[in-house]
């Protein structure tokens, strides 16, 4: 089979990229069994941001994003995101994905950091699940898309540092090589390296390490967004339930143990920036989300699927005080890309949460993540189909030795404890130093790769001596002009600081 692109991952970024490329050529999607259900897209509750209302436009969306991202977003990338949002979302509106106010206008919600109501959401509140199911069904029936079950083990890079494809470990532990003129990493983020997380347990940054080992750059690894309202329950890693920000947009309040609202004095109150809300919840120690003051029937009608999930955990969405705590939710850091998803390694692209496109800066604006996947996936597909020439013939080398799989459940549990304690919502210098030492003490030949990313994250967090967005340090509580830039990791050079340009770059 002649393949134009290999897409690794089956979340919204992987599926959208594959579908866009498949309009012109054949594509292989590599994903684990039920991969479309395993990533962050399937768990995404809020929605997709797009300037759709009559009182809104993409300029306002751009301004809101730049404000929340605390000076580290690339204005050119944010312009692309905001300006192309409506075009990217329109096919899903036409497919009937979103709740509608009338026959022509989506019902637009409000979330933290947005100056207008611009969040499109599926009925029941589980937008990511509805979107991923729709895209998966489209891909599954497409004649130019083929699925291969497996896990990317190592990228195939030739002597000229051109990516030629990837070695795939099948569920039966065979290793096969898939060659393609373009390879797209759409493998998700790394928030499941923390114990309390909204992410699926598989979201531990494997794609970032593949790219790093192949010669790509990683950046902004210290910026991990902690969602302020994870249901506070003692559950296995990856089993936590996120209580969507849309609840607060709907009117839910955050209260302390005495039943008092503690966000009233913040600009935006419960809809302040996520970094502010997460820190406020963390500092309370005990905090609750409540919708008791709202109309019960409207709550159930608007968030029916979430109410069912809570009922399974013996909570009533409309009536109970819901205990909440911050949990690792979204990775702003990732593989450095250009405006078309291209990386430093020729023929290698990154999309979705695995990528650092420049739109999230130090603190992602709510509901910009699914949008980012749609917008930049379309751009990747366009770049591949219009610009990438098929390379000359290439002989597949001998496969690499399969790495012996360590007992990852135990390793990840220990890593989760370290990341929660030493690199959490508020970071203390002595704890970070201790955390790095603990990480180094765990290294063995079998688990080196899974620890590598934790070490890079920890090194970035310790080196950035300021507080900015999702990165909060007890010893440096303010943002500093000298730190208006990015910490870049390149395997051949180590870590370096790169200043932001602050220029609205041309598209």
TrEMBL record:
What are the Fumarate reductase/succinate dehydrogenase flavoprotein-like C-terminal domain coordinates in residue numbering?
448-489
Q: Which EC numbers characterise this protein's activity in its record?
A: 1.4.3.16
Q: Per its UniProt entry, what is the enzyme's top EC class, as one word?
A: oxidoreductase
Asked if Flavoprotein is a keyword of the record, the answer is yes
Question: Which Gene3D superfamilies does the protein's record reference?
Answer: FAD/NAD(P)-binding domain, Fumarate reductase/succinate dehydrogenase flavoprotein-like, C-terminal domain, Succinate dehydrogenase/fumarate reductase flavoprotein, catalytic domain
Cofactors per UniProt? FAD
Catalytic activity annotated for this protein?
L-aspartate + O2 = iminosuccinate + H2O2
* Biological or metabolic pathway of the protein: Cofactor biosynthesis; NAD(+) biosynthesis; iminoaspartate from L-aspartate (oxidase route): step 1/1
Output the SUPFAM superfamilies linked to this UniProt entry: FAD/NAD(P)-binding domain, Succinate dehydrogenase/fumarate reductase flavoprotein C-terminal domain, Succinate dehydrogenase/fumarate reductase flavoprotein, catalytic domain
| Annotated ranges, domain FAD-dependent oxidoreductase 2 FAD-binding | 5-370
Please report a single Pfam family linked to this protein: Succ_DH_flav_C
Concerning InterPro entries, the annotation shows: FAD-dep_OxRdtase_2_FAD-bd, FAD/NAD-bd_sf, Fum_R/Succ_DH_flav-like_C_sf, Fum_Rdtase/Succ_DH_flav-like_C, NadB, Succ_DH/fumarate_Rdtase_cat_sf
Annotated keywords:
FAD, Flavoprotein, Oxidoreductase, Pyridine nucleotide biosynthesis
Q: Identify the domain of life.
A: Bacteria
Which Gene Ontology MF annotations are present?
Answer: L-aspartate oxidase activity; steroid dehydrogenase activity, acting on the CH-CH group of donors
Report the record's Gene Ontology biological process terms: 'de novo' NAD+ biosynthetic process from L-aspartate
Under the heading PANTHER family, the entry gives:
L-ASPARTATE OXIDASE, L-ASPARTATE OXIDASE, CHLOROPLASTIC
Protein family membership: Belongs to the FAD-dependent oxidoreductase 2 family. NadB subfamily.
* Protein's name according to its UniProt entry: L-aspartate oxidase
